Amino acid sequence: MSGAGGQDGASVPDEEWDRFLRESVAGAPGAPVEPSARAREVERRLRERPGQPEGWRTYSPARPRRRTGRYVAGLVAVVALLVVSLFPQQVLGWFGGDDGGPGGAPLAAESETPREAPGAERDLPLTPDEPFRGSPAARWADGAAGITVPPARATGWMDAAQVERALRKSRDFLVAAGLDPRVLRGERPTEAIALLNPHQEDVQKYLRTSLSSKRPTPRTDPLLLFSRFRPEQSRLVGDVVKTRGRLTYREGEKGAVEVTADVTFVYPVTPAGGGGRDSEVLRTIVRREVVMSWDDPARIITEPGTLSLVSYTLDMVNGGCSAPTGYFVPPFGTADEQPTDKDRRVDPYDRSKPIDATATGDDCATATRS
Fold first, then answer.
1. How does pLDDT run across 47-65, given as a tens digit for each residue?
2. How far apart are CA 65 and CA 59, in angstroms?
3. Residue 264 Cα distances to 137, 286, 314, 348, 351, angstroms
4. 0.85 cut: is pTM over it?
């Protein structure tokens, strides 16, 4: 019979058997030891990232980002927005962003009286291609689009729908009197006259006299209501007239709806014989205030769809400083020779002040810019 574990049938001494059992439990001296999973992981990290190893359960938080620059930038942005909101025109002037060219952002429609004049622009030469450059008018709307019409509400003898029609017709009168190309060429303002109450005797007399006289007086000058240029002397540059203004209304006498228009027109003009790129260009700037009354036909003799004039006032730059001729007379080549009132200075783009209706005489005010 063979003994346990023997290959040759010889028995194993008891001392050797006891030693074998002890070494099986404790391990034999010098025998290789299999590293643990944790030890293998540490060894791998040391190979991949030499240097001081991180502890197994330690955490080194990332360095917090410094926010000082972000806070400063935010504060600067807030201050910049505040400055722009309070002084938009001045800021545009600082950075040269408003050069009066076609790239300027259009202004929002005028909905209330401005608090101050537009900021100064860079002094840029006018050209037939860019007749509004260097001017606040470069950012104004074209034609009738620049005349703001307020929302309608029932007023006086009219309901809201009737007021809306009256406001629309009031703007039609301004367009026919100040923007109609035929009227600008000196033709009779037929469409504008058709909107005037034919029973208002003093206005009808003014119309007959002013449009027929070759030598109108300051009181019978057709320019008080109508914009006209003598075609043999000057012509418009292009077909765009810049405008800015608005209508307001209230209840007037005897329940009438009284509409007030305050509008500035900017006409770029050149000598009639010109036409080249080197032609001289001027801007004739006209501000009109016209008060119109839509009368109750039960109280006032009137015709449907017509208005009565309460008052009309005019202020202008580069329209002539001599005796009235019935036409605007741009001072081509003679701007420095015009007789001006040195004590009366006017910014033709400043709509924050009322028109000076007290000025008398043939001399013009001194324009601060055009």
1. 655 555 444 333 333 334 4
2. 18
3. 10, 6, 10, 8, 8
4. no
Alpha-helical regions (H) of the chain: 14-26, 37-48, 68-86, 88-95, 160-178, 181-184, 190-194, 201-212
Residue 46 in any domain: the answer is no
Sign, CA dihedral 180-205-255-306, equals negative
The three-point CA angle 222-225-230 to 5° equals 50
**CA-based nearest residue to 194, from 178, 216, 172, 161:** 172
- Within a domain: residue 241? yes
Domain count along the chain: 1
**54 in a structural domain:** no
The answer to whether 166 and 158 have CB atoms below 8 angstroms apart is yes
- The position carrying tokens 């017709």 is 169
**Backbone phi and psi for residue 216, each to the nearest 5 degrees, phi listed first:** -70, 155
Residue 10 in any domain: the answer is no
In terms of Cβ atoms closer than 10 Å to its own Cβ (0-12, 13-18, 19+), residue 60 is exposed
pLDDT in tens, 108-145: 999 999 999 998 877 788 889 999 999 999 999 999 99
Q: Dihedrals φ, ψ of 140, to 5°?
A: -80, 165
Residue that the structure tokens 């769809």 belong to: 305
